[in-house]
Amino acid sequence: MKINDVILRTITKVVVFIILTLGVYLFFAGHHAPGGGFIGGLVLASGVVLLYLAYDIETVHKGMPFDFKKVAALGVLLATGTAIGSLFFDVPFLTQAHTYIDAPIFGKMGFSTVTIFEAGVALTVVGVVVTIILSISEDE
Amino acid sequence: MNVNQMIEWAAVILILIGSIVSVISAFGMIRLPDVYTRSHAATKSSTLSVLTCLLGAFIYFWVHDGFVSVRLILGILFVFVTAPVAGHLICRAAYRSRVPLAKGSGEDELKSKLFPEEHTVK
After folding, report:
1. How far apart are CA B68 and CA B75, in angstroms?
2. Tens-digit pLDDT profile for chain B (122 aa)?
3. Contact present, B119 and B112 (Cβ < 8 Å)
4. Count of CB atoms situated within 10 Å of the CB of A122
5. What is the Cα–Cα distance from A36 to A115, expressed in whole angstroms?
6. Three-state DSSP class for residue A134
7. Which of A41, A80, A92, B46 could bridge A122 with an S-S bond, Cβ 3.0-4.6 Å?
């Protein structure tokens, strides 16, 4: 008998957007407020895990065709890439730079290479958490 | 006593109401007989208590510090949407693993629909 879980699926469609938005917010808030790459990545991964709970693995993979091991590898590459990139400017390893520019709509915006490093951390966390949960759940 | 202080008192009373409702919910968890009535107590009243507490905190920070916390609004929305669904899923899992109803419940009309092979006509 096919299980009718329309309530769970409908709520998941709404709630996943709130969770992913909160994850992105936590990621960008991390420079001046509590947050950052690690919990941002964990919240994003929990949104993905909620999708896996409500739908089956094939449906989620059809909508999100990432290999999460490669996502983790890309994250480590980004994090070490910003670290190595500082070597080209004749400064020590892992030195971070930041600047302010005047964007047309948003006004004064701060940019720093720490954000790229944190993006690497977030992608690594998402990839590792989803890979762990998928490999546990597919174990027969 | 100016307007700001009165609004802060309203926030304090909201938080007090929320904690009282939360205690009532905990008593319901202890006193009620089976999993369905307990889920009724745990889901509705603790959702209401969390909502009033978060609303009180939101109003307090807004009036006292001038800080509009979008995260608290999102939290109110999130709890309001997800807590009843969690209660629904727990009750459903309990019913499908054949947890019996309490004595004195009315007629179980879902049983003949969900488990037709076990249904015996009285």
Report:
1. 13
2. 788 889 999 999 999 999 999 999 999 999 999 999 999 999 999 999 999 999 999 999 999 998 898 889 999 999 999 999 999 999 999 998 988 888 877 778 888 877 877 756 54
3. yes
4. 28
5. 9
6. helix
7. A41
Q: Judging by beta carbons within 10 Å of its beta carbon (0-12, 13-18, 19+), is residue A43 exposed, middle or buried?
A: buried
Contacts for A89 with CB less than 8 Å, ≥ 6 apart: A95, A97
Nearest to B39 by CA among B88, B111, B108: B88
- The chain B residues in contact with chain A (CB within 8 A) are 71, 74, 77-78, 81-82, 85, 88-89
DSSP helix/strand/coil, B69: coil
> How many other C-beta atoms are found inside a 10 Å radius of the C-beta of residue B95?
18
pTM of the model: 0.84
A11 CB neighbours in chain B (<8 A) are 81-82, 85
* Beta-carbon contacts of residue A26 (< 8 Å; ≥ 6 apart): A35, A36, A39, A40, A43
Cα–Cα distance for residue pair A33/A54, rounded to 1 Å: 32
> Taking the domains of chain A in order of start, what are their residue ranges?
6-137
DSSP tag of A67: -
Question: Which of B48, B44, B42 lies closest to B19 in space, CA to CA?
Answer: B48
From A53, A85, A86, A68, select the one nearest A124 (Cα to Cα). Answer: A68
The number of angstroms, rounded, from the C-alpha of B5 to the middle of its chain's C-alpha atoms is 30
ipTM of the complex in this document: 0.78
Q: Which of A11, A17, A28 to mutate to test the interface with B (most CBs of B within 10 A)?
A: A11
